């Protein structure tokens, strides 16, 4: 791949353009808002000047509702040898293109499973896709050259290719991406009118659950409008669990011992099923989930403290597998939770204590 045209210079389009440009591909940028294309170009993602002729790859990074029309225009104009899109839904755009009667041998639908709460070119980074799954949905009609271009794009962005059927992809993202967004927003919405004293009690748990609730509502309306059926199916199952859990909690208020026992059993059931589902989420580098030991250390909110604690862990010969920081409300301190292999936890704890760190139980 020597040349590419990226249509749509939001977070995903600009990030892909930055990755391609950084690896020697001549990237041309186009957006319905020329100012966004100029911004992406100023960031080093390519040039906002039109290509002189057909490019090797046309990458369409526009909202799902506009994917089919944008691709149809590009294909009809012969802008490239291969055409990909990066929309978060795949079945709908594919069917829209088929209904237009276009030759789709040069088209392949894709979806990088990566993003941020922020949007727009200024949020873009060249490493956004590194190590992340990038779904490819080829059909029997997809030209081999186009599939190779898609695989090259994924490799240049240092992502991991995953081949799926388009409709299977849409059902999957309804479960692992679209429904979590809505549930996160619903929980966060409970905070809008909450008493200030309750909000001040927010800890890491509520921060984890509501992190993605900060996402752009307009963007998510477009995404959910393109995949409403599968999302509604998943939410229907969640709603059934909610109804059962509400009944179980009400039973716990009963004066009848048998009802309280049934209520406790119902709550435990949903919690255990949650444990089982969480255990299936892939762990580090996509491997099977690993249970790590947590070493919690009190840390002050001062420059260089995180670097110092990581350096001390390195001197002890311990690899930090994951890290979380829980901030103390109203204080210039917090807990840094270092996740390590269980066998390494005692060694790390002693080494950090020897270097003056204060450990806490979690």
Automatic annotation (TrEMBL):
Pathway: Amino-acid biosynthesis; L-tyrosine biosynthesis; (4-hydroxyphenyl)pyruvate from prephenate (NAD(+) route): step 1/1
Signal peptide region: none
UniProt keyword annotation of Oxidoreductase present: yes
Domain ACT: 294-362
Known EC number: 1.3.1.12
Prephenate/arogenate dehydrogenase domain: residues covered: 2-289
GO BP: tyrosine biosynthetic process
Region annotation (Disordered) ranges: 255-286
Entry-linked InterPro entries: 6-PGluconate_DH-like_C_sf, ACT-like_dom_sf, ACT_dom, NAD(P)-bd_dom_sf, PDH_C, PDH_N, Preph/Arog_dehydrog, Prephen_DH
Pfam family, one: PDH_C
Catalyzed reactions per annotation: prephenate + NAD(+) = 3-(4-hydroxyphenyl)pyruvate + CO2 + NADH
Keywords for the protein's UniProt record, in alphabetical order: Amino-acid biosynthesis, Aromatic amino acid biosynthesis, NAD, Oxidoreductase, Tyrosine biosynthesis
Amino-acid biosynthesis found in the keyword field: yes
PROSITE patterns membership: ACT, PDH_ADH
GO molecular function: NAD+ binding; prephenate dehydrogenase (NAD+) activity; prephenate dehydrogenase (NADP+) activity
Recorded family membership: Belongs to the prephenate/arogenate dehydrogenase family.
Stated name of the protein: Prephenate dehydrogenase
Gene source species: Streptomyces venezuelae (strain ATCC 10712 / CBS 650.69 / DSM 40230 / JCM 4526 / NBRC 13096 / PD 04745)
Taxonomic lineage: Bacteria, Bacillati, Actinomycetota, Actinomycetes, Kitasatosporales
């Amino acid at each position: 791949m020597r040349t590419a045209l990226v249509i749509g210079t939001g977070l995903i389009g600009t990030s892909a353009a930055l990755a391609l440009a950084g690896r020697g591909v001549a990237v041309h940028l186009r957006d319905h808002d020329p100012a966004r294309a100029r911004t992406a170009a100023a960031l080093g993602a390519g040039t906002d000047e039109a290509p002189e002729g057909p490019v090797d790859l046309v990458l369409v990074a526009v909202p799902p509702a506009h994917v089919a029309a944008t691709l149809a225009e590009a294909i009809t104009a012969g802008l490239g040898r291969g055409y990909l899109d990066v929309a978060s839904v795949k079945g709908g755009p594919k069917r829209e293109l088929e209904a237009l009667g276009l030759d789709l041998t040069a088209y392949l639908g894709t979806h990088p499973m990566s993003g941020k709460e922020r949007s727009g070119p200024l949020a873009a980074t060249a490493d956004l896709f590194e190590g992340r799954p990038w779904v490819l949905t080829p059909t029997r009609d997809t030209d081999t050259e186009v599939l190779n271009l898609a695989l090259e794009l994924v490799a240049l962005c240092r992502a991991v290719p995953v081949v799926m059927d388009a409709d299977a992809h849409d059902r999957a993202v309804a479960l692992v991406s679209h429904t979590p967004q809505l549930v996160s927003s619903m929980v966060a919405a409970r905070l809008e009118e909450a008493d200030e004293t309750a909000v001040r009690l927010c800890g890491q748990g509520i921060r984890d659950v509501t992190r993605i609730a900060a996402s752009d509502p307009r963007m998510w309306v477009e995404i959910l409008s393109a995949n409403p059926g599968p999302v509604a199916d998943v939410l229907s199952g969640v709603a059934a669990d909610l109804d059962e859990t509400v009944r179980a909690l009400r039973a716990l208020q009963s004066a009848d011992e048998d009802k309280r026992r049934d209520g406790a059993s119902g709550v435990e059931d949903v919690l255990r099923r949650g444990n089982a589902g969480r255990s299936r989420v892939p762990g580090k580098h996509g491997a099977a989930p690993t249970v790590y030991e947590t070493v919690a250390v009190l840390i002050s909110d001062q420059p260089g403290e995180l670097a110092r604690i990581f350096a001390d862990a390195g001197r002890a010969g311990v690899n930090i597998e994951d890290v979380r920081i829980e901030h103390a409300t109203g204080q210039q301190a917090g807990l840094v939770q270092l996740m390590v292999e269980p066998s390494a936890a005692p060694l790390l704890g002693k080494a950090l204590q020897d270097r003056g760190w204060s450990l806490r139980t979690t």
